[in-house]
Amino acid sequence: MTIGEHLDELRGCLVRSLLAFVLACIACIWPAKYLLELIARPVVLALRRHGQPDSFLATSPIEAILIYIKVVVFAALVISGPYIIYQLWSFVAAGLYPKEKEWVRKLIPLSVGLFLTGVVFMYMFALVVSLNFLVGFSGWLPLPNAKPTALERALLGGSGAEAPASQPAIREAPSVPIYEEDPNDPPTGAVWFNAFDRKLKLRGADETYSVQMLRDSHRALVTTHFRIGEYLSFVLIFTIAFGIAFQMPLVVVFLVRSGLVSLKTLRQYRKVVILVIVVLAGMIAPPDLLSHLLLSVPMYLLFEIGVFFAARGQRAKQRQDAPPAA
User: Fold this and answer.
1) What local confidence, expressed as pLDDT, does residue 26 receive?
2) In sequence order, what are the residues at sequence separation of 6 or more whose Cβ sits closer than 8 angstroms to the Cβ of residue 228?
């Protein structure tokens, strides 16, 4: 193919990929509300685990609408991602020989499967572990004891009243029932504490009202309150990073099979590959060490898996090309 034909093929792949993305956006407009609930679930679990408010902040009047659009785009990228990968491999195959084209077409289903595996691994494991660490780190910073000394009370102008010598017995204090789940059909005016949600709840005339409770014994210096837009950007970067990172075995096999890089070179410069993986993970992953490790370690393991299958395929090809024994 000439350069012009390659450019025409690239333009066709881009147009088809863009069309698939637009159709996926249209399909995701209605279920975006439920997709946002699914995306927010890991951070809500992490916030509740560490006694932090389980809600998001919106600092702009139109941020809620922008968030809805971002969720639609996010879901459309995930849904159209396999087809975009297919178009990418099709463009690569257009510049190969017929035998190599057939081999590349066999890689497309594996590439799509690895992309989806990376997204599932990110959502089920990496995202939960990373958020648990990031939210828990703020709880690791304790709130200082703010009880003023006599000198501080004099400087601040506070009252010098001391605590009474006796306190009412605990049995005289009103008690609130504690449940793991909300009771079924509670009466109007009922008050209870939901231990799972860590919320104090009151049943009104038509609906239930609640207040998020924080642990008094271990108050954090920093209260974690994410902006919804920043959290979605965080998840989007994670999704793209793991979806691309899980293509590593196929990239290695393709480079060796096509002759662009020899298997001996990959093994000889393994340390350089590790350095490149670490740098790429540092550029893609969020700027904390745990998120960096959650991306770089799987990338290296996938590289080794790719080297293993490339060596296995090379040995099979050598046996196939070897002349028959006399």
Assistant:
1) 93
2) 56, 57, 58, 63, 67
What is the structure's pLDDT at 290?
A: 82
Query: What is the separation of C-alpha 292 from the centre of its chain, rounded to a whole number of angstroms?
Result: 12
Residues of the chain with pLDDT under 50: 326
Residues 70 and 213 both lie in one domain? no
* Domain carrying residue 115: 3-141+223-321
286-to-85, 223, 231, 282, 292 alpha-carbon distances in Å: 24, 20, 11, 8, 7
pLDDT of residue 193: 92
Question: According to the 3-state scheme, what is the secondary structure of the chain?
Answer: CCHHHHHHHHHHHHHHHHHHHHHHHHHCCCCHHHHHHHHHHHHHHHHHHCCCCCCCECCCCCHHHHHHHHHHHHHHHHHHHHHHHHHHHHHHHCCCCHHHHHHHHHHHHHHHHHHHHHHHHHHHHHHHHHHHHHHHHHHHCECCCCCCCHHHHHHHCCCCCCCCCCCCCHHHCCCCCEECCCCCCCCCCCEEEECCCCEEEEECCCCEEEEECCCCCCCECCCCCCEHHHHHHHHHHHHHHHHHHCCHHHHHHHHHHHCCCCHHHHHHCHHHHHHHHHHHHHHHCCCCHHHHHHHHHHHHHHHHHHHHHHHHHHHHHHHHHCCCCC
**With contact defined as beta carbons under 8 Å apart, do 219 and 143 qualify?**
yes
Look at residue 158 in the predicted model and tell me its pLDDT: 61
Q: What is the pTM (predicted TM-score) of this model?
A: 0.73
**For position 168, what pLDDT does the model report?**
61
Contacts of 64 (CB under 8 A, 6+ apart): 58
Residue 115: inside a domain: yes
Residues 52 and 75 in one domain: yes
- Shared domain for 117 and 234, answered yes or no, is yes
Let me know if residue 159 belongs to a domain: no
What was the pLDDT predicted at 5?
73
Instruction: Count up the domains in the chain and report the number.
Output: 2
Q: What integer pLDDT is reported at residue 121 of this predicted model?
A: 92
